[in-house]
Design goal:
heterodimer; A: 161 residues; mainly alpha; 2 domains; 6 helices; 65% helix; 0% strand; B: 500 residues; two-stranded antiparallel ribbon; 2 strands; 74% helix; globular
């Protein structure tokens, strides 16, 4: 909201903005690279490769636009961010994916995510949270499996039920 | 006119079947419960609850959906009033005055005027929907593929560029969505695009995975990253729940004016509910007899924007149902709900499944009525949901969010995509990129492409076909103006600012 303010004392180059512009440019290149292997089968009109190229052109233009914004320091002000909780939640998601991938089942996987997220938001009572998580995910599993007949991945715990 | 009444009566007969009433009740209940949770807007409410409706029959589950949609809106306003964290930008105006009222011990009347205003606006706007829809359907059947393509261009531009803070950032979001829409097998030639040899990507990016990742996981990451900044404070509801005679007198005109702003702007593909709510807020501020109260808890400032918000939500159903054109994140999720059953909203659906469409419209009236009953006396129950400690709340949200994906597609690739979209959503929030255009781009991108390719195939590859159809030419002109206008106006604004 403050970006339109003309009397900003100093406008510094925004490094994050430069990274965003670079990523958009990379994405545009990937699109063109991917579109080049496609065969145009259409007799007339446009084939499957046309739209990716159009979108790539748009992305390239937007990369330039974002680059100019970043150079002028036009990005909105940001508050400081704490990386620890973000990493904790991502670890939880990674655990969930690993447990599901290795056949550990729904209950263990979501419990791991619950405990790490709760810890990310500042709770330190890990044991209690683990118990809550196990009970909750068991109830969800039963509700989905028995009532809605949706199949959730089963692991060692689910087979006991 | 007569036809509309007949169709609506028929729809009502569908909607009041006991099973459908039950679905509507479950929908409004779940919608309010999830919508009340801080940080969860109606779009995410619908996205989270999509897997729950997966196995029901289409009619019943669409009715449940309508309930979830309206329930999420009601729930969101409760959160905005009692803790100053609007779940979506359209509730920002409500939070502005409503939270001040709650702090001054007038939380009850604030909740009441929001609920009754939502009811009034929702009912009027649903009537508007019922009468506007058949008329638009008559126009829409005449649309050729080139006209549809042009219409989608208008939607792309208005959703991303015209009304946001920064057209560049809005368009960036849109193009990320369009890129994601390319992933998968091209329907016309069977060739894989952007799949990189991963078999799971051949089916394309799942809309629910994207929406839940961006909204739920992204929001959780964002709130966690800035937990040290803000302390949310829940205002207890003190004093009477009921509005005084004075409150009624000050509320009814803002309700109607809010509806007048909300419905047309929502029904035009003009992108979301933010504009009408802020228009309504500034109008009420100008017209009020109590200007000194604004900023300190004026009831007009809750009544008007809340009505505008709900009316525009019903308004976005007009282009959604008649043209298959979603213009807000929530409408995009509704479209995903239809597509889950292989239904494509549009003129054909009105002709082929009138029972379904009109049953849905009729059930909107019923959902609205249920919500009024559910919200006023039961507000204490919803308030208790707000008291869940933040760690458990967000842990629960994430479990629920991943559960949807696990139930639909329990694969490592799909879950990794969910996590990846979560990181994307976090970064977009952090750097202030709007999120709705990504979802709209993913859904509309492939449709726009196939319409364009069909149009060009019919014209034997002549691109002039886009300009030869008067409808298409006009729409493309509108899209161009809407695209250029914000840049020009911004230039003018800067020029003016320099003059001062």
């Amino acid at each position: 909201m403050t970006s339109g303010d003309p009397v900003q004392p100093q406008r510094r180059v925004d490094r994050a903005g430069l990274v965003i512009a670079a990523l958009l440019a990379v994405l545009a290149v990937v699109l063109v690279w991917d579109a080049r292997r496609l065969q145009s089968a259409a007799m007339y009109g446009m084939g499957p490769e046309a739209m990716p190229v159009v979108i790539a052109c748009g992305l390239a233009l937007l990369a330039i636009g974002n680059f100019i914004d970043a150079l002028r320091g036009n990005l909105p002000a940001r508050e400081s961010a704490d990386p620890v909780p973000v990493v904790l939640i991502l670890v939880g998601l990674a655990l969930l994916i690993a447990i599901i991938g290795l056949g550990g089942g729904f209950i263990l996987a979501t419990s791991a995510l619950f405990v790490t997220t709760s810890a990310a938001f500042g709770r330190r009572a890990i044991l209690i949270d683990a118990i809550i998580a196990l009970v909750m995910s068991t109830l969800i599993y039963l509700a989905f499996d028995r009532l809605l007949t949706l199949s959730l991945p089963a692991g060692p715990l689910e087979r006991l039920l | 006119m007569i036809d509309t009444f007949a169709a609506l009566a028929h729809g009502m007969a569908v909607a009041v079947q006991p099973m459908n009433l039950l679905y509507a009740l479950i929908g409004v209940f779940l919608g309010t419960a999830v919508g009340v949770l801080p940080g969860i807007g109606p779009a995410l409410t619908v996205a989270l609850l999509l897997p729950v409706t997966y196995k029901l029959d289409p009619g019943g589950s669409l009715i449940m959906f309508a309930g979830i949609y309206y329930g999420g809106m009601y729930g969101g306003s409760t959160t905005a009033i009692l803790i100053n964290t609007p779940g979506e930008s359209a509730s920002m105006a409500t939070a502005l005055e409503g939270n001040k009222m709650a702090k001054a011990g007038r939380g009850g009347p604030a909740l009441a005027t929001a609920a009754i205003g939502s009811f009034v606006a929702g009912t009027i706007a649903t009537i508007g929907l019922a009468f506007l829809a058949p008329w638009l359907v008559d126009i829409a059947v005449r649309f050729g593929p080139e006209d549809y393509f042009a219409l989608m261009c208008v939607a792309f531009v208005t959703v991303s560029a015209t009304f946001g803070d920064s057209p560049i950032r809005g368009l960036t979001s849109l193009f990320i969505g369009l890129t994601l829409g390319l992933v998968g097998i091209d329907k016309l030639t069977g060739q894989a695009r952007l799949a990189f040899g991963v078999p799971e990507l051949l089916d394309g990016v799942e809309v629910t995975t994207l929406a839940v990742g961006l909204f739920a996981v992204g929001e959780a990451l964002y709130v966690a990253s800035r937990r040290h900044h803000t302390e949310e404070k829940l205002e207890p509801v003190r004093g009477s729940l009921w509005m005084t005679k004075e409150d009624w007198k000050r509320s009814w005109k803002p309700w109607l004016r809010g509806t007048m702003f909300g419905f047309p702007i929502g029904a035009l593909p003009a992108g979301g509910a933010e504009i009408p709510t802020f228009l309504s807020y500034s109008t009420e501020k100008r017209l009020t007899k109590h200007p000194e109260e604004f900023g300190k808890g004026a009831i007009e400032g809750v009544a008007g924007p809340e009505a505008a918000n709900n009316a525009s939500a019903a308004g976005t159903l007009v282009p959604l149902l008649t043209l298959g054109l979603p213009t807000s994140a929530t409408a995009a999720m509704m479209l995903a709900g239809f597509q889950q059953y292989g239904l494509n909203p549009g003129p054909l659906l009105f002709a082929e499944r009138p029972d379904l469409v009109w049953g849905l419209i009729a059930s909107l009236f019923i959902a609205n009525m249920m919500l009024l009953v559910l919200n006023l006396p039961l507000v204490g129950l919803w308030v208790r949901l707000l008291a869940i400690p933040q760690p458990w709340l967000y842990a629960g949200i994430l479990v629920f969010a991943t559960m949807g994906t696990i139930a639909a597609k329990p694969s490592v690739v799909e879950l990794s995509m969910l996590a990846g979209f979560g990181v994307l959503g976090f970064l977009m929030r952090r750097f202030d990129f709007p999120i709705a255009p990504v979802v709209v781009g993913l859904i509309l991108g492939p449709i726009a492409e196939s319409q364009l390719r069909r149009a060009l195939a019919i014209s034997l590859g002549d691109p002039m076909t886009l300009l030869q159809s008067p409808i298409s030419a006009t729409l493309l002109g509108i899209a161009l103006i809407a695209l250029v206008a914000p840049f020009v106006l911004k230039g003018l604004g800067r020029f003016k600012a320099n003059e001062d």
